[in-house]
Amino acid sequence: MTQPSSVIFDVGRVLFDWDLRFLYERLIPEDAALDAFLRNVVTTQWHFQHDAGRPFAETSAELTALYPHHAELIAALGPRFNETNRAMMPGMEALVAELDAAGVPLYAITNFSGEFFPPFRAKWAAVFDRFRDVVVSGDEKLMKPDAGIYHLALDRFGLDAAQAIFVDDNAANVAGAEAVGMHAVLFTGEPRLRADLRRLGFPLADQKTAASTL
């Protein structure tokens, strides 16, 4: 297989530590009530509708009709979505910067709301400015691991599948990338990813050297 020369990242839980809990733990102080709310009301599965392209105005109206006593909490997700992100994943800011400095083309394919992504990108402009392009599922009405979103991204990025390595924390998404011919690795943390990329020939320092420069 051709040695890859470009890196395509997932965004949530690969580049950035993301969880609906990060917002709602600020709004619901009791642990039991918070757990129940995230299990039964604003669930991850419900939120995936936004990643698929549904407008928040529609989904929040439907959910509020079912749980009118939670109307304010449901509505908070729209303007406060950026608070579902706590920080970058450990080591990833430095890894992205090192790849960019070495001239490695960087891209992303993310299951993300087309409404929520622009303010999120603006918040992290210093990171995303290192990327040549980002394909957002909510804009395309295609979600990983559908083969269509990988083909669309490769066409847009001007890459043959074998030229790219795809990094995702979801095994199904990794398998989807492999099925269209990309190299792909399951993200379990920056140290393992750094080792995987070095093994494939990307110009990165080893873990010990990288840690000593921080």
Q: Which short descriptors sum up this protein?
A:
single chain, 214 residues, alpha/beta, 5-stranded parallel sheet, 13 helices, globular
Short description:
This protein is an alpha/beta fold and 214 residues long. The chain is 49% helix and 14% strand.
Descriptive notes:
The radius of gyration is 18 Å and the shape is globular. Helix content is 49%, strand content 14%. With 214 residues, the chain is an alpha/beta fold. It has helices spanning 20-27, 31-40, 44-51, 56-66, 71-76, 92-101, 117-123, 125-128, 137-140, 147-157, 171-179, 190-199, 207-212, and strands at residues 6-9, 16-18, 85-88, 106-110, 133-136, 164-168, 183-186. The strands form two sheets. It has a five-stranded parallel beta sheet with strand order 5-4-1-6-7, sandwiched between helices. The chain has a two-stranded antiparallel ribbon with strand order 2-3. The chain has 13 helices and seven strands.
Q: Name the helicity range.
A: 40-55%
Alpha-beta content class: alpha/beta
How many helical stretches?
Answer: 13
Q: Whole-number average pLDDT?
A: 96
Please write out the topology.
Layout: E1 6-9, E2 16-18, H1 20-27, H2 31-40, H3 44-51, H4 56-66, H5 71-76, E3 85-88, H6 92-101, E4 106-110, H7 117-123, H8 125-128, E5 133-136, H9 137-140, H10 147-157, E6 164-168, H11 171-179, E7 183-186, H12 190-199, H13 207-212
Parallel strand pairs: 1-4, 1-6, 4-5, 6-7
Antiparallel strand pairs: 2-3
